[in-house]
Write a structure and sequence with these properties.
single chain; alpha/beta; Rossmann fold; 2 domains; six-stranded mixed sheet; six-stranded parallel sheet; 12 strands
Length: 288
């Protein structure tokens, strides 16, 4: 790619830590170039406790918007000027738009994940789903699944109070869905999965320095009619997904969520539709 950065180039980016392995810069910069937009997307590593400084910097340099990832998805809310109604329920932000110095927080994670599921042919409406993990992404996914028709959402986490927070948000705001919080235990998980159609691992286990690990030790917790997903996309298939596939489960990694939540953010910043089919080509070409 030639040098397309100019004095007029609009800044967007990703704020989080660690983010050196993020595919978001590749996705957004490819889309900007394809559409001939004078934008750039940067990876801006920001350690925990420095989110306010990062936001001030983005305003100072006139950034149009940016994505937020761990460990800032929840902490950033206190420093924004406005958030959407869905953010008030979810309690986390992954996308910020700068409207002339006014920072507005959105959450596109859950919508992106659900779009990916639907394209994979997963039918969860009127059915039970199980979520493992209780961070910002887990909140977004669990609440969006409830909004979009799941009638039972079980949230499991080692710190059960965090899972209870998600369940309470669902029970308070979405009358068509019942949610329960449970402390994570593999035997309990196996029992809960017997009548579930979807299991989502929203933990970071299986990536970075935990690549040889899985949230479960035994593949007999899965059944072949269960769709198994996680939000990790590096490696492409975690040990967790490989274990599920051994039993005959269909699986998906975090690429779909990354792609479709990015599509929504792209539209918010530019007003243009992301060229999804082109991005799929460049993304998978890079994986090859």
């Amino acid at each position: 790619m030639g040098n397309r950065i100019q004095g007029t180039t609009v800044i967007t980016g990703l704020i989080g830590y660690p983010i050196k392995d993020s595919k978001s810069p590749h996705i957004h910069n490819s889309a900007f170039q394809k559409l001939g937009l004078d934008y750039v997307y940067l990876a801006l590593e920001t350690k925990e406790g420095l989110i306010n400084e990062a936001l001030n910097a983005m305003k100072l340099f006139g950034a149009r918007g940016f994505n937020i990832t761990m460990p800032h998805k929840e902490a950033v809310i206190d420093y924004l000027d406005e958030v959407t109604e869905e953010v008030k329920i979810i309690g986390s932000v992954n996308t910020v738009v700068n409207e002339n110095g006014k920072l507005i927080g959105y959450n596109t994670d859950g919508k992106g994940f659900v779009k990916s599921l639907k394209l994979d042919g997963v039918n969860f409406e009127g059915k039970k789903v199980v979520i493992v993990g209780a961070g910002g992404a887990a909140k977004s996914i669990a609440i969006q699944l409830a909004y979009d028709g799941a009638t039972e959402v079980v949230v499991m986490n080692r710190t059960v109070s965090k899972a209870k927070d998600i369940a309470d948000r669902i029970n308070k705001n979405i009358s068509t869905c019942r949610s329960r919080a449970l402390e994570f235990d593999e035997c309990v998980l196996k029992e809960e999965l017997k009548d579930a159609v979807l299991l989502v691992d929203c933990t970071p286990i299986g990536t970075h320095d935990t690549v040889e690990q899985s949230i479960v030790h035994n593949s007999d917790i899965f059944h072949k009619d269960l769709f198994v997903a996680n939000i990790v996309y590096s490696p492409i298939k975690t040990k967790f997904l490989l274990m599920a596939e051994e039993v005959g489960c269909r699986t998906s990694n975090g690429i779909g969520m990354l792609l479709y939540q990015g599509e929504l953010a792209f539209k918010l910043w530019t007003g243009e539709d992301m060229p999804i089919e082109y991005i799929k080509e460049v993304l998978f070409d890079k994986e090859d």
